[in-house]
């Protein structure tokens, strides 16, 4: 794939790698500068981090959107791409919709995951200002982005209806082209084009695609069987699409619950069920992101570059032999990195818990003892003149965050 198309769409991977290293550098500066830099210097050195992440997303979505709607080249007599226009190859028809849907997905997921951790703390009785801020800041960002994501999701679905009609047919399990097409919630597409199970809602697919029952929706049979996803692949793309839309809708209800309580009482919801749902929202967002990618990739089958290269032609016979070995190495490396990460995080959390219960003095180098932006401890009036240091609460006071 890269041998044939690398010159056309490889730029995105270059940008992504560059952004990745920038992120690594700025994360290191942020973590190691925690106590070594002045708070404002530390803060401003954190600002390029999300920008580098946006740049990484630009590269990777540029490459993926090109695979969905390839352009910016012509083919010579031997079928090789020539006359490459980098600008056209980066800004493909699917780039905008995919980029914004993905960026919002990432910020939203990060928000719900971080808030979810504090929601668990809240359920376990940690109701101090530190935990409240830890919950409110990420949850508010995620809650504001959720309805926006709903509109972006609706838009991206309509974009694939116009620009990748066979993928749309797979995601909505539409067999024959026609009008008055029903919407199926779940259900399994059969080899004869019928749908088993699921909930059928008459005409809704046509209405969602073009705001009218008379909107014509292209079916899977509009292309030969060899050029479209199999019925099993279409069913998978359909289920992941439905799960994504379902979880997206459930997250909106959660965001509304939060917004309603905040507007009425300027406070968090009191129900434990709210915090249980908030704790689940992080995991649910991660599942939704995976579902999004499965819809994108499985819905495009059998093409790796839509209408230009099949997945089966994407590797040369020599690299095909090494494919499973490479895949095995990648899996092992990721398991080790993830295992090490979880080990460090769990150790940090255990140290926190023991300090929290007063069983041990918080370690002088523990992150919980000197958060530059954390709430200041409440000082008795007599000590108020003794202003706290800009580095945060007194490191020697056990449990000072509570
Ligand atoms: C609520 C309604 C939603 C709808 C209708 C929707 C629709 C879609 C569609 C049609 C695609 C395939 C795009 C393509 O193949 O070009 C997609 C991809 C994706 N979706 Fe959603 N989505 C929704 C919510 C969400 C939410 C809440 C998240 C994450 C928390 C999410 C994350 C993703 C991701 C990561 C992708 C793959 C990358 C991309 O194409 O941008 N989606 N979505």
UniProtKB/TrEMBL annotation:
It is a multi-pass membrane protein. The chain crosses the membrane at residues 12-31, 43-66, 99-121, 133-152, 243-261, 273-295, 321-346. One of its GO terms (cellular component) is plasma membrane. Keywords: Cell membrane, Electron transport, Heme, Iron, Membrane, Metal-binding, Transmembrane, Transmembrane helix, Transport. InterPro entries: Cyt-d_ubiquinol_oxidase_su_1. One of its GO terms (molecular function) is metal ion binding. Residues 361-402 are annotated as: Disordered. Its main location: membrane. It is found in: Cell membrane. One of its GO terms (biological process) is aerobic electron transport chain. Belongs to the cytochrome ubiquinol oxidase subunit 1 family. This is Cytochrome ubiquinol oxidase subunit I. It comes from Actinospica durhamensis. The lineage of its organism: Bacteria, Bacillati, Actinomycetota, Actinomycetes, Catenulisporales.
């Amino acid at each position: 794939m890269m041998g044939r198309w690398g010159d056309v769409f490889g730029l995105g991977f270059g940008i992504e790698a560059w952004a990745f290293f920038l992120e690594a550098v700025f994360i290191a500066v942020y973590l190691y500068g925690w106590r070594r830099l002045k708070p404002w210097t530390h803060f401003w050195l954190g600002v390029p981090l999300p920008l580098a992440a946006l740049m990484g997303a630009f590269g990777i979505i540029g490459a993926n959107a090109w695979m969905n709607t390839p352009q910016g080249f012509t083919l010579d007599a031997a079928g090789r791409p020539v006359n490459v226009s980098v600008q056209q190859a980066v800004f493909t028809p699917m780039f905008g919709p995919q980029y914004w849907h993905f960026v919002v997905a990432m910020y939203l997921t990060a928000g719900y995951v971080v808030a979810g951790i504090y929601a668990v703390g809240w359920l376990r009785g940690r109701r101090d200002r530190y935990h409240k801020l830890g919950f409110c800041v990420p949850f508010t960002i995620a809650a504001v982005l959720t309805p926006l994501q709903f509109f972006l999701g609706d838009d991206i679905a309509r974009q694939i209806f116009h620009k990748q009609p066979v993928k749309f047919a797979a995601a909505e399990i539409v067999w024959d082209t026609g009008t008055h097409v029903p919407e199926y919630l779940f259900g399994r597409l059969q080899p004869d084009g019928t749908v088993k199970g699921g909930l059928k809602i008459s005409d809704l697919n046509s209405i969602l695609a073009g705001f009218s029952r008379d909107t014509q929706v292209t079916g899977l049979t509009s292309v030969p069987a060899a050029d479209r996803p199999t019925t099993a692949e279409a069913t998978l793309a359909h289920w992941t699409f439905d799960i994504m839309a379902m979880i997206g809708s459930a997250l909106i209800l959660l965001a509304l619950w939060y917004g309603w309580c905040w507007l009425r009482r300027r406070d968090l919801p009191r129900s434990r069920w709210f915090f249980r749902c908030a704790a689940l929202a992080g995991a649910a967002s991660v599942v939704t992101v995976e579902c999004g990618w499965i819809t994108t990739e499985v819905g495009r089958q059998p093409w790796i570059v839509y209408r230009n290269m099949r997945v089966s032609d994407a590797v040369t016979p020599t690299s095909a032999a090494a494919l499973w070995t490479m895949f095995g190495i990648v899996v092992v490396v990721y398991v080790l990195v993830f295992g090490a990460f979880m080990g460090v995080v769990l150790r940090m959390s255990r140290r926190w818990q023991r300090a929290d219960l007063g069983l041990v003095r918080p370690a002088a180098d523990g992150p919980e003892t000197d958060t530059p932006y954390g709430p200041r401890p409440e000082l008795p009036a007599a000590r108020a003149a003794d202003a706290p240091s800009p580095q945060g609460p007194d490191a020697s006071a056990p449990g000072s965050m509570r």
